[in-house]
Write a structure and sequence with these properties.
The protein is mostly helical. The chain is 65% helix and 9% strand. Strand 1 and strand 2 form a beta hairpin. Helix 1 runs antiparallel to helix 4. The longest helix has 32 residues. The radius of gyration is 25 Å and the shape is elongated.
């Protein structure tokens, strides 16, 4: 059995955790201010933005604990530790985003039929506050969001929040200077649609990971073709390739050899395979079962 493993540094994890914590505190501030402001001013878009911010707080807290959990050591009854906690967090975040968006859209349609007068000054100031606070959080998480699905889910929540707050600000200005009060419902409706769009993409990615689907950038046949070109290898078959989390890409397979070799010789072949898979496909965890003249299915994909 061969293993080739790359470990992420704890330092990056700790920094990620600190950034998430700051974002959580900033968002709690915005949410409280906007909920009070929404009720006082009568603005649905401000309340919907507050609700959006509240889901941010929840999603950031979930992400924070998932990041913490993913560092926990593996044990006898949790051999992978909590490495998949972050994917689960992304899945939960995406689901809540979609549910809340649907509720907002329903409310916006009702409100559009009966527009209400809204205290626009409060809407303008609170949306400005939200833009600044969310902007800070977005900047904090931007870099990590490119390499981590959990942070990406939190980052997307915050980015959509910031855009929603910009829309609310524009709405506040239109209400203040032109008395266009129905704009409040229209904005809420648009924010809702945008949330569904963002949430769906994230839900799809996290579901694929949870289902252990082959990552979309990997072509299994290419992997097999490359491995088969190594000396003494007849066929790589019974292949499984999946993401354990953002950092770990696993391959397990059976390897049909053309002669009865020693374990030392097999180790040398294994080293070649690991190097090739790592360099060309970013696969960093390899588990291979060697075989010689074994009667079993030799298909690339074998359904157990």
């Amino acid at each position: 059995m061969g293993h080739h493993h790359t470990h992420n540094h704890n330092h990056a994890h700790d920094l990620r955790g600190k950034k998430l914590l700051i974002s959580i505190l900033l968002n709690i501030g915005i949410t409280v201010a906007q909920i009070i402001g929404g009720f006082v001013s009568g603005s649905l878009s401000l309340l919907s933005d507050a609700l959006h911010n509240f889901t941010d707080v929840i999603s950031l807290i979930v992400s924070y604990f998932a990041a913490k959990l993913s560092k926990k050591k593996a044990s006898n009854n949790k051999t992978f530790g909590y490495k998949r906690a972050e994917i689960l967090a992304a899945f939960i975040n995406a689901s809540t985003l979609i549910v809340i968006a649907i509720l907002l859209i329903i409310e916006a349609v009702k409100r559009f039929q009966n527009p209400e007068t809204i205290e626009s000054n409060l809407v303008i100031w609170l949306s400005l506050l939200a833009i600044i606070f969310n902007g800070l959080s977005v900047l904090l998480l931007r870099k990590d969001s490119q390499t981590n699905i959990n942070i990406k889910s939190a980052y997307l929540h915050l980015l959509t929040d910031m855009l929603a707050s910009v829309a609310v600000l524009i709405g506040g200005l239109l209400m203040k200077y032109y008395q266009i009060f129905w704009i409040d419902s229209v904005l809420t409706f648009l924010i809702g649609l945008y949330l569904i769009w963002v949430g769906y993409a994230l839900l799809k990615t996290s579901t694929k990971m949870l289902m252990l689907f082959t990552p979309s950038h990997i072509n299994v046949e290419d992997v097999v073709k490359r491995v088969n070109s190594i000396n003494h290898i007849k066929k790589l078959h019974h292949v499984h390739i999946w993401n354990l989390n953002d950092d770990e890409l696993h391959l397990e397979a059976h390897l049909d050899l053309d002669k009865d070799i020693t374990i030392t010789q097999f180790d040398a072949i294994l080293q070649q395979i690991e190097q090739l898979l790592h360099d060309e496909f970013d696969i960093n965890h390899v588990n291979i079962q060697p075989e010689y003249k074994k009667e079993d299915p030799k298909d690339i994909i074998v359904q157990d």
